[in-house]
Amino acid sequence: MVTAVQPSAVLAGERPQGSPAPAAAPLAPTAKQAAPRAVDCRNLKCVALTFDDGPGPYTAGIVKALKAKGAKATFFMLGSQVKGREAAVRAVKAAGMEIGNHSFNHPDLSKLGARAIRSQVGRTDAALAKAGVKATLYRPPYGAMSRTVRASLADRPISLWGVDTLDWRTRSTSATLRAASAAPRGAIVLMHDIHGSTAKAVPGIVSALQAKGYHLVTVSELLRAPQPGKVYTGRYAR
């Protein structure tokens, strides 16, 4: 069964509010998007790795490491980071990765009114549209939920997470590797592609999970058909 959650307070696992995201390094676009795969996570052991707050200086390296091992992931992007980096966004999508909306500049949406929430989402949608990309999912900064947030995002699925690597706090490659590699079947794993320590951990994370027989998929592949208005932390209840 798919795990969904009710509106709640801010979750741990996001960088502190107001902490700036580094500028993104150039990422050359690929000529054509990779063909979609048929992965049925109802019958296969799957884990969804996710990366927030980019595109950043390490996004290209993370995508390259994932692609080299046949792995997929979901990148929840900030509109402020997307703006002016449309080629980087297109390259992530062309590599077969999924792209989600993570607000424009990372505020706590639970402290905002409906109009401000819709502005945060709409400005990021518009920035992604300039890159020719449409976000398939939404992830609120800090995992902060409220009735107003949920009502304002009722037109799209909301992806939180079940495994928090705390990479933003530890900035430790080994700690991030241990946390992500311990993810159970059906987990959505939270990381950030703006940290070099996380980028260094990705090849080991992929190898460790694949050695356990896991397929590394996008969030939408994991959930199969995520529904608008629902909030997900993973595919299976623990």
Please provide a written account of the structure.
It is a single chain. The chain is α/β, with parallel strands linked by helices and 238 residues long. The chain has one domain (3-13, 39-234): Glycoside hydrolase/deacetylase (TIM Barrel, Alpha-Beta Barrel). Helices cover 34% and strands 15% of the residues. The strands form 2 sheets. Strands 2, 3, 4, 6, 7 and 8 form a 6-stranded parallel beta sheet that branches. The protein is globular, with a radius of gyration of 16 Å. Residues 6-10 and 16-35 have low confidence and may be disordered.
Unreliable sequence segments: 6-10, 16-35
What structural class do the secondary elements suggest? alpha/beta
Q: Roughly what percent helix? A: 25-40%
Number of domains: 1
Strand content: 5-15%
CATH fold description: TIM Barrel
Largest sheet: 6 strands, parallel
The helix tally amounts to: 9
The CATH architecture can be given as: Alpha-Beta Barrel
Organism: Galactobacter valiniphilus
Domain NodB homology: 45-217
Region (Disordered): 1-31
Pfam families: Polysacc_deac_1 (PF01522)
